[in-house]
Amino acid sequence: MDINRTICRLVRDGFILVFNQNKLDVVKTAQALADAGIGNMEVTCRIQKPLEKIRRLKQTMPDFCIGAASLIDFPPMLKRYNRQTPDDRLPSVDEAVDAGVDYLVSALNFSEVAYERYAGRIAMVPGCGSVTEIVCQYANGANLCKLFPAEQIGGPSYIKAIDPAIHKLISIVPTGGTNAGNIPDYIETGVLILGGSFSLIPSKSLNVIIADQDYALFSSEIKKVKTLIDDCRAKQYPGIDFQTSSLEQISKITGRCFNMD
Questions:
Q1: pTM attached to this predicted model
Q2: How many angstroms separate the CA atoms of 171 and 14, rounded?
Q3: What is the layout of strands, in order, in the sheet containing 65-69?
């Protein structure tokens, strides 16, 4: 999937699920997401055998948009971590790309080397925690900037406070602590895409999903999240149909630029 289709998919979905469950099947989870109207998922490299899961998912669902997350784009740290955990290595950015991912995500910044290799070719969503990091990563070529951990940094009020300083140009993806209670507040600040994990699902339902491998229930619960996001975005941007509008049209109305040129 080329970078234009990837960014378009993420913007249309309005949501990125963080797949961090070793007890669930990655392909069945992706299929359940597709049934709920979501065509992407990021596979965190903190789970077991992430590259194997990414390759299997890509082979089984080639049109599904797949991200690799929790990447550490700093060779000395990556080398030390992998030396300590040789049986559960953390892949590098290059290895994730070779596995066929459509977008790259990290809780950290990406290096200049990574931008030189992949900016404009593969969608990049670095983790940021300050205005300076957001602007610097965007200037290097980031398409979206992940705010992580969003809840601890300050949530919707933090984004509302810093948005004028970035001239409401950069699309921020809050991840960490997003839930049905604060999704409307995030979208009201201008957020177009939110990240979240299985913690978005009520614990009672999540226990059933994992224990019974109930992917239909998972799809039903995620559909509620998707519907909430769609409804909030429609209210915030009545002039946009996110399912049919082009990135250019969305950028023109929202002011957000996805670094595609």
A1: 0.97
A2: 11
A3: 123-125, 103-105, 65-69, 40-44, 15-19, 194-196
Give Cα 135 to chain centroid, integer Å: 18
Longest dimension (CA), the chain: 52
Annotation: CATH topology of 3-254: TIM Barrel (3.20.20)
The length of the chain in residues reads 261
Which residue is listed with tokens 């030189």?
A: 116
| Domain parsing of the chain, residue ranges | 3-254
Per residue, the 3-state secondary structure of 196-212, as one string, reads: ECHHHCCHHHHHHHHHH
Task: With a cut of 50, list the residues of the chain below it in pLDDT.
Answer: none
Q: What pLDDT score does 87 carry?
A: 86
d(CA 105, CA 144): 10
The predicted pLDDT at position 245 comes to 97
What tokens does 96 get?
A: 């994730």
**Identity of residue 103:** Y
- Could you give phi then psi for residue 49, rounded to 5 degrees? 50, 55
> What whole-number distance in Å separates Cα of residue 55 and Cα of residue 66?
10
